[in-house]
Fold:
Amino acid sequence: MRARVRRVRRFPTLAALTWLYVLWSLLPVLIAARISFNNGKSRSAFQPTSFRWYWGDHASSVWYDDSLQTSMANTLRLAGLCMLIATPLGVAMAIGLHRWRGKISNAANGLMLVPIVTPEIVFGVALFFVFSQVYVGVPTGLTRMMLGHVTFTLSFVVVIIRARLAAIGTQYEEAARDLGASRLQAIRLVLLPLLAPAIFASVMVVFATSVDDFVISSFLSSGAGDETVPIKIYSGARAGSTPALNALATVMLLFTLLAVALAATVVRWANKRGGAAPGGTGGLAGLTG
Structure:
């Protein structure tokens, strides 16, 4: 009896709709990036191309304008601090919540989803009142903005790490304990290497979320000295600025795309090495040695 070959059903209409949506969503970004190369000051029409608004204009280009450089530095500083603080806290909380059992743990797991499902403007207003009415001793400016970003992005890290923990299971850590490892050794030598792709993905998600945030930053900002790129673009667009803001947005878009591409490359490289199994085997081998 001949084996029947199953044909894969294709849906050309669905594929066409998907590509139309992708092009529709990318078109405004491409137009804004193209205007950043205008030789003139128009932000509503295409003009001859140049790098004037990147480094050619000594008065208002991204390379020479102090206010644009300050906003970029503030954005990258906030994103870096947020990655360094939110990621370790999120990993620790995810491991703790994954092992915690009982009714209280279910409530705690539900609370971790509140920042994700809450509208960001509500979250920003809540943080504003918390810092202005309760924690009034917290320094204004970048400190409050950093704490707000960490509070908002922490839940993303917990969700990503917990999904990876559920996929890994407990067998590798239990095997390490059977081979004589302590609880901390099992976490450090076995569990954390297995979590490495998820941790790296969490770092990139935190970076992209912090760089792109406008609502929380605008509520917690104290003035022009701690403006981030989204705040600078919003305030400048309302005042009728030059394409230098488009150039600034394009530079930050490149930073975000590089971060996402780096995350995808690392995750793909980890999957090619065999995913969770090599990490677990390597950790157990280190324990036996």
